[in-house]
Amino acid sequence: MTEKKEAKLGIFEKYLTLWIAICIVVGLLLGRFFPRFGQYLDSLKFAKLSIPIGICLFFMMYPTVVGIAFSDIKKAVRKPRPMLLTIIANWVIAPPIMTLYANLLVADPIQRAGIILLGMSPCTAMVMWWMLLAKGDLAQGLINTAINALLMVILYAPMSAFYLGVSGIPIPWDLIAISVIIFIALPVSLGAASRKLLIRRKGKEWFESTYLELVRRISIIALLLTLIVMFSFQGEIILNNPLLVASLAAPNLLHYVTMIAITYTTSWLSNWDYATSIDTTLIGSSSHFEVAIAVATTLYGLNSGAALATVIGPLMEVPLMLALVRVGLRTRHLFPRNKRKANI
User: Fold this and answer.
1) Which of 83, 115, 117 is nearest to 250 (CA)?
2) Contacts of 229 (CB under 8 A, 6+ apart)
3) Dist CA 15 CA 172 (whole Å)
């Protein structure tokens, strides 16, 4: 029984890309042929955060942080350079690049605004799951993600106002606060408490071989459900207006490719190990779509081109991040560049 179960789980994880593709298709079809289903799920919100997506993202986050030991976090804090590169990538390089691509490729000014808002919001939630899948340094990733969340409170509004050329950018304080609590504070505190309690009662071997495997499988299920929910929200628009979607996707695609090239190459030239390098690249190229959607909706309206543009971004981001995970795993043997003199 045990061998059969392990074989089945191995096949499931081996073909994860296929299951992701299937869930994306299912979500699109639900949104296209049962639009009320997506509309109903989208209406379930608390402080501008989608409740279904919030629940799924929490169950993606907890498994990524429960395996982090406090000693790992202490080591990560002693490595400031990856954190500095993440900050520069997210707040110095990404905004003007996304603004440039939006101005070059999108004619409608309202749609451009949505794309720019998306480029201003570095990811603080789902990115931890991609780090887990890419075999990154989760402790380092957690530190960098937490710093991003704090900087978003300070920098998002003034930088968005600067690049959009408008004043009075609303800060969705409630959404940012809820995101920090649900995706950082709560899973980290629960992870630390449950880790300590379970290791004390069951032993470290049981915790690592049985419990961690169980919660990581739950995180995969949560990811697949997240995809179905996300794509069901906009399935009707995506399938009915493919040319519009493609025009809004183009600057996002170029932005991701550019940021991945900059951060991954810089990490390699800096002679960092693979786990640190893939963390920096994932955080430096992904986005916190909930904040961008909330601000676009407040500024331009629920049915505006800006709101639509902010929705297209995360729908593209999932397959792109999955592709980046695969690229990272295939190229990790190249890190560090000089294995005798690794430097972080």
Assistant:
1) 115
2) 27, 41, 50, 52, 53, 56
3) 38
d(CA 221, CA 219): 5
CA distances (Å), origin 297, targets 165, 199, 308:
17, 45, 9
Contacts of 66 (CB under 8 A, 6+ apart): 187, 190, 191, 194, 195, 211, 212, 215
Q: What is the pLDDT along the chain (344 residues), one digit of tens a residue?
A: 444 444 444 556 667 778 888 988 898 888 888 888 877 887 888 877 788 888 888 888 888 888 888 777 777 778 889 999 999 999 999 999 999 999 999 989 889 999 998 888 887 667 888 898 899 998 888 888 888 887 887 888 888 888 887 656 676 777 777 777 887 788 888 988 999 999 999 999 999 889 988 888 888 888 888 888 888 877 777 788 888 888 888 999 999 999 999 999 999 999 999 999 999 999 988 887 777 877 887 778 767 888 888 878 777 788 888 899 999 999 999 999 877 766 76
Q: Which residue has the tokens 């749609």?
A: 111
**What is the distance between the alpha carbons of residues 240 and 259, in angstroms, rounded to a whole number?**
30
Distance CA 73, CA 77 (A): 6
Please check whether the domain covering 2-334 is classified as CATH 3.30.70.660: no
What is the rounded distance in angstroms from the CA atom of residue 240 to the CA atom of residue 288? Answer: 26
Q: How far apart are CA 312 and CA 221, in angstroms?
A: 23
| Partners of 49 in beta bridges | 46
Reading the block at residue 71, the tokens are: 């000693």
User: Long-range pairs for 49-54 at CB < 8 Å and ≥24 separation?
Assistant: 49/175, 49/178, 49/179, 49/182, 49/290, 50/229, 50/290, 52/225, 52/229, 53/226, 53/229, 53/230, 53/290, 54/178, 54/182
pTM: 0.80
- Do 251 and 101 form a contact (C-beta atoms < 8 A)? yes
